[in-house]
Design goal:
Radius of gyration: 17 Å
CATH superfamily: Glutaredoxin
Distance between the termini: 29 Å
Strand content: 5-15%
Largest sheet: 5 strands, mixed
Helix content: 40-55%
CATH architecture: 3-Layer(aba) Sandwich
Structural class: alpha+beta
């Protein structure tokens, strides 16, 4: 009984943090949407990346799970650690197609280094060159996630993490910020959760339906697996 209570209290804190993320993101989105208006810039060419939505598709299941994540966002890191293994299992067993949307709303929390944009660009660079390494790279980025209000990881560290999962030819794209404008364009496509007035991370859509973070309990079986099982 005590364990259940502790879990519930932790998740209440998690949701409270998510609400704060919504508030701090609103100002940043004005800049993001203005940048998005200038077009997508250089676009990834891999068949697994949707040039209209920015989604990086992993797997080929009939169900679809869209996740919009900012690599500086601690709530996204908590989501990955809590739900990530179950999501990977559903991808592996053919239940779902996971659509990863790397977005950038927290550049203002990386002391001028634009870490959210740089990390999202790196995600696209890896996914474009090596579609099979997209999920391992996402997992590795969250495993090395920097704290807010730090400079974040350097480009050299982003490259090293990519090399660690097998992408050994992505340094130029990461250093040159090849998909920086595409990141801003795709961020502007992020849907608003029910009941919210601005973008929050993570944002989740199940079979195309955006859900509210307030409906998540911290139980992957109930929150995701059971929904796809019908």
């Amino acid at each position: 009984m005590a364990a259940v209570k502790s879990k519930t209290n932790w998740f209440a804190i998690w949701i409270s943090v998510a609400a704060v993320v919504v508030i701090v993101a609103v100002g940043a989105l004005v800049v993001v949407f203005n940048n998005a208006a200038s077009g997508p810039g250089t676009q990834p060419q891999a068949a697994t990346i949707d040039s209209e939505t920015g989604a990086i598709a992993v797997g080929d299941g009939d169900g679809t799970l869209d996740t919009y994540v900012d690599f500086m966002c601690p709530v996204c890191g908590n989501f990955e650690s809590t739900y990530g293994p179950s999501i990977e299992q559903m991808v592996d067993d053919g239940t779902i197609t996971l659509n990863i949307h790397p977005i950038s709303i927290l550049d203002r929390l990386s002391l001028g280094t634009d870490y959210s944009t740089r990390a999202a660009n790196a995600m696209y660079v890896v996914a474009d060159a090596h579609p099979d390494l997209a999920l391992p790279y996402l997992q590795a980025l969250f495993a090395s996630q920097p704290a807010e209000n730090t400079e974040g990881l350097t480009n050299a560290e982003l490259i090293s993490i990519a090399e660690g999962v097998g992408a050994t030819d992505v340094a130029d794209g990461i250093n040159n910020g090849t998909y920086t404008q595409f990141v801003k364009f795709a961020t502007g496509k992020t849907p608003i959760q029910p009941g919210q007035s601005g973008v929050a991370t993570p944002t989740i859509a199940i079979d195309g339906e955006v859900i509210s973070n307030s409906t998540l309990t911290g139980d992957p079986q109930a929150d995701l697996v059971a929904r796809f099982a019908g």
